[in-house]
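Q: Given only this backbone (256 positions), what sequence would you predict?
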């Protein structure tokens, strides 16, 4: 399987350029799966501590409009999160889009931070404490949305379901990107999955402190690829059998 991660500038004044540049890159590689960051198709709402249902609806509309254009990227499967309203509850929903079938939502963010630039618990509601698998054919995909990555019991649970991929769509600060990469390596080892993460990126000094650095890590925690300002995309060939074999090796086989 060939997979791509990216760091993506979602500011309204540049998002169309970000989209065009991503599409140009993808046209030069042959990839099966693209992981986008957390709520990538609108300005980062939680940068403000003043929630607005009107702004939430605007974010939903922006994501729906961009989803309608996903075929422009030429990738069979794309994962991301998006703002949604479920029975009057505002949610951050993990979404898998596949060519010909459209979108499937399979997890809403459960572990919510609430601090400067990340007023998520102020903006929207916790989802469900269930971490279901998404599937592309026989490929089993787990997701931990940003902060959820630090709750390694979720990674352990995905290991027991036989997940191949552990996806971590993020919006995280400039100053902590190294810590997040280390956490992604640990999540890969705990789960025995290939751990992917794509982060939003806004330049330093802009309203949202979001710092990029996306990665692909193998089930033993080895870094296969990472992005930077100069190289905002990375594509890697992976062997899903490595994730299957890893489930029977240390530390995954050790009983709880």
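A: Predicted residues:
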């Amino acid at each position: 399987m060939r997979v791509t991660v990216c760091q993506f500038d979602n500011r309204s004044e540049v998002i169309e350029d970000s989209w065009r540049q991503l599409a140009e890159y993808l046209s030069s590689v042959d990839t099966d799966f693209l992981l986008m960051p957390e709520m990538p198709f609108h300005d980062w709402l939680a940068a403000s501590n003043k929630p607005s249902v009107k702004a939430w609806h605007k974010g939903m509309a922006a994501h729906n409009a961009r989803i309608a254009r996903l075929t422009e990227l030429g990738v069979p499967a794309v994962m991301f999160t998006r703002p949604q309203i479920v029975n009057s509850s505002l949610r951050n929903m993990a979404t898998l889009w596949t060519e010909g079938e459209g979108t499937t939502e399979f997890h809403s963010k459960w572990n919510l931070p609430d601090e400067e630039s990340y007023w998520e618990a102020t903006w929207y509601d916790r989802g469900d404490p269930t971490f279901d698998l998404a599937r592309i054919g026989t490929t089993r995909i787990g997701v931990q949305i940003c902060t959820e990555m630090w709750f390694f019991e979720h990674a352990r649970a995905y290991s027991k379901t036989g997940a191949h991929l552990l996806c971590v769509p993020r919006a995280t600060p400039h100053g902590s990107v190294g810590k997040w990469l280390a956490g992604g390596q640990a999540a890969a080892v705990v789960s025995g999955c290939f751990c992917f993460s794509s982060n939003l990126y806004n330049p330093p000094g802009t309203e949202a402190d979001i710092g990029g650095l996306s990665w692909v890590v193998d089930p033993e925690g080895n870094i296969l690829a990472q992005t930077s300002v100069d190289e905002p995309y990375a594509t890697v060939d992976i062997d899903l059998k490595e994730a299957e074999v890893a489930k029977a090796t240390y530390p995954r086989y050790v009983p709880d």
